[in-house]
């Protein structure tokens, strides 16, 4: 009897196991990840857990970043003639990164100041820094009493915090219109925030210049209450900014359509060399009464790339709104990274708190803009000297850090594979990467890949 019972129990367990396995084969519990597209089922899970080495076998290779991926490839390249004109980062005439002397002085003072500590900053960052940074952007007569501002992880972090705020609180459209073309990360950031991303016409590739009519038409046709992303100055990658008169028409269109203007200011001081003049599009938008947000970066103009100093601000209707907005910005930041780093913002604060150091800084920023401008002119002169028949005048008309050459992705690939010249595939050259030592080499290579071929493309239908 006893034996029999045991046998029956064993048989029962065996049959259950069989049914379980058959069901698992027939009806695997399949999970598909929406971001990576990777699919797993319970069979995979069984084998994965039986062998821990396989746990992450399903992680697919992520694509390299369109800008920073190329910078990485440049670092790995062994060719002694290699040239980096990829990332928008300033280089000296010797091709080296530059820590601004005013920044060095600020750091020395910070080191000696025994009141400096390493405590956490508040969620919203150092408000004294934010106030200085916002005055730098919005001007001395800025309505700071109704501008809600937080410190962010440079311009990228500012776009992200601003995008999250808009996704949660715009009363009308959750659509952001981004210029075509724009800094590649814009689309990714705002999509991550849950906003729908669309483009407006900005650059006419058939004439290598601003497509102002197309821009205004697309902004006008966007659904009422859309968010319009605008580069405050020195548009990346095209180097084409609207004229003051064109800006006025843009403001009016935005007002007429009750849109929201989201300014990205990553190059204040690099367009004209004058930080005050470069802020005029933003300042005039506030004066014109537009609803304005600003993502501000000190990466390029203060040379603080890796220090991650920026701000995000929202121009509110009154002080009460400002407080409410600030409370929500803090709610966005706290679960993301708690609070920002303090070194970079302390540098900016120290410089902008001291009139002498500020004026030294303004001169240093102007000197960077001037060197880039010189290289821009020299590049075009050199291109003609080495025999190029193309009209490169668009490159001299453009402003800021980049030359948007009109070269095709294939020409860019050829520059990289045959000449070890690293640039983004949209034909953008970071002019700061050029200097008297590599200029002729680059000009000859550009001439070689563009000779007899078009550097304009037909207008998109
Ligand atoms: N906005 C624009 C228009 C921009 O070009 C950059 C950076 C940023 C924001 C963000 O910079 P941050 O370092 O987060 O303050 N552009 C250069 C570097 C990069 O791609 O990250 C570039 O275009 O090369």
Describe the 3D structure.
With 461 residues, the chain is of the alpha/beta class. Helix content is 46%, strand content 14%. The protein has 16 helices and 15 strands. It has a 7-stranded mixed β-sheet, sandwiched between helices. Strands 1-2 form a two-stranded antiparallel sheet. Helix 6 packs across helix 7 and helix 12 (343-353) packs across helix 13 (355-385). The longest helix is centred in the last third of the chain and has 31 residues, at 355-385. The radius of gyration is 27 Å and the shape is globular. The model is unreliable at 20-28 and 33-37 (pLDDT under 50). The chain binds ligand KET.
E-strand count: 15
Number of helices: 16
Low-confidence segments: 20-28, 33-37
Say which molecules are bound, naming each kind only once: ligand KET
Strand coverage percent = 5-15%
Query: Major sheet: size, sense and barrel closure?
Result: 7 strands, mixed
What is the average per-residue confidence, as pLDDT, rounded to a whole number?
92
Note the overall shape. globular
N-to-C terminal Cα separation, in Å? Answer: 86 Å
Instruction: Report strand order across the widest sheet.
Output: 4-12-11-10-9-5-6
How much helix, percentage-wise, in residues?
40-55%
Using only C-alpha atoms, the radius of gyration works out to: 27 Å
Structural class, from secondary structure content?
Answer: alpha/beta
């Amino acid at each position: 009897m006893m034996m029999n019972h045991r046998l029956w129990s064993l048989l029962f367990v065996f049959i259950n196991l069989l049914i379980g396995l058959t069901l698992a084969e027939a009806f695997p519990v399949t999970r598909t990840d929406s971001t990576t597209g990777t699919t797993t089922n319970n069979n995979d899970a069984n084998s994965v857990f039986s062998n821990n080495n396989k746990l992450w076998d399903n992680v697919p290779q992520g694509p390299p970043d369109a800008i920073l991926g190329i910078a990485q490839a440049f670092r790995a390249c062994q060719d002694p003639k290699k040239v980096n004109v990829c990332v928008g980062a300033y280089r000296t005439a010797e091709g080296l990164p530059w820590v601004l002397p005013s920044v060095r002085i600020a750091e020395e003072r910070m080191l000696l100041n025994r009141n400096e500590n390493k405590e956490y900053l508040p969620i919203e960052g150092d408000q004294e820094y934010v106030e200085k940074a916002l005055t730098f952007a919005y001007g001395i007569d800025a309505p700071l009493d109704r501008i809600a501002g937080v410190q962010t992880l440079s311009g990228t972090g500012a776009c992200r915090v601003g995008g999250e705020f808009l996704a949660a609180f715009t009363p009308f459209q959750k659509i952001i219109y981004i210029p075509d073309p724009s800094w590649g990360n814009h689309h990714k950031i705002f999509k991550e925030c849950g906003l729908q991303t669309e483009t407006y016409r900005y650059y006419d590739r058939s004439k290598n210049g601003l497509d102002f009519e197309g821009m205004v038409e697309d902004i006008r046709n966007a659904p009422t209450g859309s968010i319009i992303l605008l580069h405050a100055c020195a548009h990346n990658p095209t180097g084409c900014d609207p004229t003051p008169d064109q800006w006025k028409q843009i403001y009016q269109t935005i007002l007429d359509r009750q849109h929201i203007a989201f300014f990205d200011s990553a190059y204040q001081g690099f367009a004209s060399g004058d930080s005050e003049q470069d802020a005029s599009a933003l300042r005039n938008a506030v004066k014109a009464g537009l609803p304005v947000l600003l993502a501000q970066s000190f990466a390029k103009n203060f040379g603080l790339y890796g220090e991650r100093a920026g701000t995000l601000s929202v121009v509110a209707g009154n002080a009460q709104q400002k407080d409410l907005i600030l409370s929500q910005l803090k709610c966005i930041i706290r679960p993301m990274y708690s609070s920002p780093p303090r070194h970079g913002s302390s540098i900016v604060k120290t410089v902008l708190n001291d009139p002498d150091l500020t004026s030294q800084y303004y001169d240093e920023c102007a000197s960077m803009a001037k060197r880039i401008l010189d290289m821009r002119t020299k590049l075009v002169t050199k291109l003609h000297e080495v025999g190029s028949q193309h009209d490169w005048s668009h490159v001299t008309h453009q402003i800021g850090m980049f030359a948007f050459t009109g070269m095709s992705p294939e020409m860019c690939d050829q520059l990289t594979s045959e000449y070890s010249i690293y640039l983004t595939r949209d034909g953008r050259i970071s002019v700061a990467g050029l200097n008297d030592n590599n200029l002729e080499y680059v000009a000859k290579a550009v001439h070689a890949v563009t000779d007899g071929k078009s550097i304009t493309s037909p207008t998109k239908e």
